[in-house]
Fold this protein.
Amino acid sequence: MKKLTLLIMTCLVMGQVQAEDGSRLWLRYQSVDKAKVNGPACIAADELRKYFRGDEVTLAIDPTIEAEAFKIEGTTISAKDETGLLYGAYTLLREPATQGYQKPYFKYRILNHWDNLDGTIERGYAGRSIFWDLDGDQPKAIDAALVRAYARANASIGINGTVLNNVNASPRILSPLYINKVKEIAAILRPYGIKVYLSVNFASPMALGGLKTADPLNAKVKTWWKAKAKEIYREIPDFGGFLVKANSEGQPGPGDYHRTHAQGANMLADAVAPYGGIIMWRSFVYGANHKGEDRVKQAVSEFINDDGLFRSNVILQSKNGPLDFQPREPYAPIFDNMHKTPQMAELQITQEYLGQSRHLVYLAPMWREFFGYVAPERLVGIAGVANIGLDKNWCGHHFSQANWYAFGRLAWNPALRSEQIADEWLSATFDIDDSHRTPLLSMMLRSREACVDYMMPLGLHHIFKFDHHYGPEPDGYIAHYPLEWCPVYYHQADSAGIGFDRSHTGTDATSQYREPYCSLYDDLTTCPERYLLWFHHVPWTYRTNSGRTLIDELTYRYGRGVKEVESFIDIWHNSKPTIDEQRWQEVDERLQHQLDNAREWQKTCLDYFGSFARK
Ligand code: GCU
């Protein structure tokens, strides 16, 4: 209490009380205006002059240092250019004792905004888009200060790219009007080392160019894309490239013309290649060509024959799991199958299937789990589906900020431990002492496993309420929708047991994995329990590792998840004296929602599954 009072008094004296509404994210530095900064005038210099607590810092341009890397020796930061200096400056502000050389692990560290031009955000839970909205039928003016604050936050964690619009892309984004807006945004982001990219609709030449086809082998189509690329690069010379969702969930693509993904991607790749642009082509494709095939196998079936056929500036972007951002999935086997194609992992920062902005779920442990199977050296980049909107605190839930933060830090260094990242974030975001930090850390680190337990333990998946994906619907079946959109397809519960047989006796999805995982997952006795019902249809009477029967183990795990949330509430209540009022209240309310929702999951799922098990 004393510390807080002192802080408030200091702020009052300095005339700079700022509401703790979360808007400052992890960048809550107090301005000290003390340091003398030598070197070029740049954003790094401004930040250090304002916030560095030492007396003097020197910024030095050193052309021998790799792009984006920096070196700190004493209080001298050296880098190739201003972006490197900026990364060095934020590192020094975060950890004043840092010394030595650092460079980002991944070349591409990109946020994917699923923002629509009308201001809504697909799977966004933090308000409307920070980039787009309509003013009548015209694009609304860009809020430069907001976009600058966004850029600063990203630069502080090393993010170097952003896709500004939804993968379900409106062709309008490529109209001159919107290209101009993109140019404005790019100008704000550029000094922070961030490139802009756009999601494109494969049928844009038809919708926008009046062509009769979007066939990638058609000469007019190729010419249209080349001209469009030229137009974009004339306005934005450092434009990053395109992200493409093609022939997926109703989106147009080369398949509409019986062309392959490689043919489609290469046509776009050729259009941006003269300017150094890239194409991020998504592998999230299912349905169309694979009726009846297990959905989790379809990406490999769809892309395997294209391996080696893509241009060198095409990157295949795949979600971490083979289904769709579930609380827990085994890794996606496409990472094992494309040996000649550069790959990127797509992670979901927005918590579509993990309680959205109402549940406190810290995602770094999930992403670290993924890197345990798909070594970072097999990837050229990572993309994170952003959780950012116009909400005052940017992310809806104060603790969801930690996921944005963790994404950036892991993109910089995937070897960082979840605990270290959480600790950094907590220390920067709240003014807490050690005795309170430890329980909060433990809450964050346990939160993802708790979510798995109260939603979908033992490898269950996709038993969410239809469409909005918040809450349970294990009995979900809608006859006129594809079966692979229905929960009953995924859990396959019947009187004999539960789970999806993906072993060699079932859909044989296990055969898409490299050894040892192929054999490990295929055999019920060696399959890790966390993936049990993902890969096997298991009798209700099956004894799990604990000695409990399957239904008893499910009951136990749902209960464990709910208890964890109860204990998070205790931890939060104990931390009340150390957390500022508004943020404490807002988190507290959400924790109560989380508990209600966890109990709903427990009851709905156990009632439903119990009705089979106890027949
Ligand atoms: C999920 C999500 C969709 C999204 C899609 C995608 O299915 O629910 O909203 O468009 O993923 O990643 O393309």
Observations:
- The pocket of alpha-D-glucopyranuronic acid is lined by residues 122-123, 167-168, 245, 284, 324, 352 (CB under 6 Å).
